Amino acid sequence: MPTTEPAVQPDADGITLLHGYVPVIDLGLEEPADPQRRAAVAQAVRKACETSGFLVVVGHGVPEATVTGLYDAAGAFFRGPAEVREQAANDFEDPLQHGWSANDRMQLFGGSLLGERTEGRFPGLDSPNRWPGQPGFRDAFLAYYEAATGLSREIMRLFALGLELPETWFDDKFDRHMTPMMVNYYPPRTGVVHDKLRNSPHTDFGSLTVLYQDDAPGGLQVRDQRGQWLDVPPLAGSFVVNLGRLMTRWTNDRWASTVHRVVNPPAEQEHLDRISIAFFYQANPDAEIACIPTCTGPDDPPHHPPVRSGDYFLSKSRRAYVLRSMGRLDAAP
Fold first, then answer.
1. Which positions ≥6 away from 47 have C-beta within 8 Å?
2. Is residue 251 within 8 Å of 160, Cβ to Cβ?
3. Residue 65 is inside which H or E element, if any?
4. Is the Cβ–Cβ distance between 249 and 204 less than 8 Å?
5. Can you list the pairs that 166-171 forms with residues at least 24 positions away whose Cβ atoms lie under 8 Å?
6. Which residue among 20, 50, 241, 291 has the highest number of C-beta atoms inside a 10 angstrom radius?
7. Where is 44: in which H helix or E strand?
8. Backbone phi, then psi, for 314, in 5-degree steps?
9. Secondary structure class of 24 (helix, strand, coil)
């Protein structure tokens, strides 16, 4: 569980705490509703989306026990008997790669729920999940999944306010969302010859990503507008949120989908492993992603043609599948 407390100072409004390029924003979801404060939070979120495309959120309302439950279940899964993982091994013929991926950077894709949510209505998104037989794992995974769904819905509502839209503008675009969730395990690297990266520079391709990361050394970095790599330090009780390319299309490139990577720990700490949990919030498969009305005008026509969320997701997933089949397991999707 993360315990790092980076030095932060409140802005005058008491909402945004800044540590370098990535702001820390208290969403206020654990307090009584206050429309004035909520409007200020939405503007802080909008500012982050226009600049770094990354923010760290606190006051998010996700119970600590829900996070701990999945973190502990994931630790037992990845550190436990190999035969438990092999029961949930993915099918290499499945482009969505549900299940456990047996490479040096082990990943579990089993919680995307695509099959359950599309119910065969969108061909290509109905391959089954592959759950491990480990007692309690599925329940912990689904509890976290539902909590991340609720948090993502609230963030999208703040996005809507920041974009001068009705607060619920995005709601019906995500009421049958097709979100993959990935549990990443980074094993100890002692004695292994490798470069300094655990995951190559890339951007995400969904609407937004909600990331939980533990406080083990070697973690997330973002590339700022000057091309410098900056750490996103773990903050106790927080989630990292970043925009995907679908949100950039929706906002006519006004909001940033920022390049990021995961680095290895320093040599003296290579014996430590690490777990992160990424929730890639993806709109309904039949949702049309077209330029938001408030993001275009006579002098700024739409930059991208409309695209269905499911078509976009499948095209990006197939590219990632091809890269994996070529052995480029850490290549950006």
1. 23
2. no
3. helix 64-79
4. no
5. none
6. 241
7. helix 35-50
8. -65, -40
9. strand
- 3-state secondary structure at position 201: strand
Q: How far is CA 101 from CA 28, 59, 86, 297, in A?
A: 37, 34, 9, 45
Joined tokens for residue 143: 């509890």
Structural domains of the chain sorted by starting position, each given as residue range(s) with its CATH number in brackets: 17-325 (2.60.120.330)
3-state secondary structure of 262: strand
Secondary structure class of 288 (helix, strand, coil): strand
For residues 107 and 85, what is the distance between their CA atoms, to the nearest angstrom? 10
Cβ–Cβ under 8 Å, residues 256 and 50: yes
Entry pTM: 0.88
* Separation of CA 229 from chain center: 19
Provide the angle, in degrees to the nearest 10, between the axes of the packed helices 35-50 and 137-162: 90
Q: Tens digit of pLDDT per residue, the chain (333 long)?
A: 544 455 455 565 656 665 668 899 999 888 888 899 999 999 999 999 999 999 999 999 999 999 999 999 999 999 999 898 888 888 877 777 788 886 644 555 544 444 455 455 566 677 778 888 899 998 999 899 999 999 999 999 999 999 999 999 999 999 988 888 889 888 887 665 556 666 778 888 889 999 998 777 668 888 988 888 888 888 888 999 999 999 999 999 999 898 888 887 777 677 778 888 999 999 998 999 999 999 999 999 999 999 999 889 888 876 665 555 544 444 443
Tokens 């499948």 — which residue?
Answer: 314
The residues, any chain, with a CB within 8 Å of residue 40's CB and separated by 6 or more, are 13, 15
Distances (CA, A) of 57 to 129, 135, 210, 292, 326: 30, 31, 10, 25, 37
Q: What DSSP line would sit under 153-188, residue for residue?
A: HHHHHHHHHHTTS-TTTTGGGSTT----EEEEEE--
Compute the chain's Rg from CA coordinates. 19
* Beta partners for residue 183, in sequence order: 108, 277
